[in-house]
What we know:
The chain has about 425 residues and is α/β, with parallel strands linked by helices. It is built from 19 helices and eleven strands. The longest helix has 24 residues. The two termini are about 45 Å apart.
Amino acid sequence: MPVPDKIKQQIDEHSVSLENFRLGGSSYDNHSLKNKLRGKKVIGAGEATHSSKEFNQLRHQIFQLLVEELDYRIFAWEASFGETLEINNYVVDGEGTAEEALSSVSSPNCKTEEVLDLIRWIREYNKQVSDRQKVRFYGFDMQNDTASFKKLREIMEEVDSDFVRANDETLKFIEQGKMMFAEIDEEKESELRDFTKDFQSQVESKQGKYLEIISEREYRLLKQLVVILEQCRKFCLAVNENADYEIDPWAFRDKCMAENISWIMNFEDEENVFVWAHNAHVKKGGKPEDPESNALGYYLQQKYRDNYYAIGFDFGTGAFKYLNMEQPQPDWNGEESFDEVHENTLAKELSEIQEPFFLDFSGTSINILEEWINQKHRIHSVGTYFHLDSIEDHYDNVCLSEGFDGLIFVPEVTASEPLGM
Length: 421
């Protein structure tokens, strides 16, 4: 049922309306939101689905506010590290076009008009500022990141072509994404483990020689690409049904993504970063499918303590895209919607609120509202797949104050349209 009038009144009084939140605006609401986020170093902005337009637009608006008002210079995205290097080259140096840069990303849910608008805005902003003030764009994921491996080969061809020729067959196996799908016996698993270990040793032992050919910055990038290779090896073998590698791949993935975000901040010598990812990742506790495992946000909070701020997103009704696995070739053309709010959900509790809002939990010392935030609530949690016969799979039962530092609620959302790249 909807929240009692007393709680609704407290939400109205303590929240920031997002109804009039606009790019480049200077309204009271913009200032209020800025003041809530001031002083934080790492802001994790979630999403309840991977492909609802309003979530993307609001995160763009928040990031623009952070860049223009609070000196944020890194946009970190739940996308493969290697696939976003071309986007970074575009926004920083103007290489190619925005469309060409975005087409380097393989996930169709990432290739939407809202993301393209964000990339274009960053490029336009960067044209007007010094190199030191330019915004950088990075992915931090490492799932079967074949783009990183191709970049790895490219750099190694320049600094150590003998190593590439000696290991060409293994490199091709990795570049083709086969670690995740191919039949891998103990011998192949041992070969891949030894290869990544030898690769790391090669890069470290020949640092002096490599630095005669490439810059310090390129060498640091090379080392990180080798780290991602090792992360990906462990992850892929864990999810590969044809291999026998016993780690929890999804918990491991979140830990690696947190490490990659910290590396990006160090690489760019920046203290602030905006993290764009699903609620299931930015939350500070366990993951929806396994509350005992730790999400990305847990590791960020452990490292950055009070300087990490997680924003959870939820919605009332509306549509989203998902990966349609019922087709011969799975495609991001499935569309579903929550046409009505379900009982015993946060959406039902907030069903009488008609405008999108942001609620900062730190300002809710009123007993009745604090008690409500400290309770568990079922929020929407739709990822890449949607199971039509099991609606319960698409909720996460989370204590708001333990999982997040703030909440953005949108009464109605619409599905993003993939660009068809």
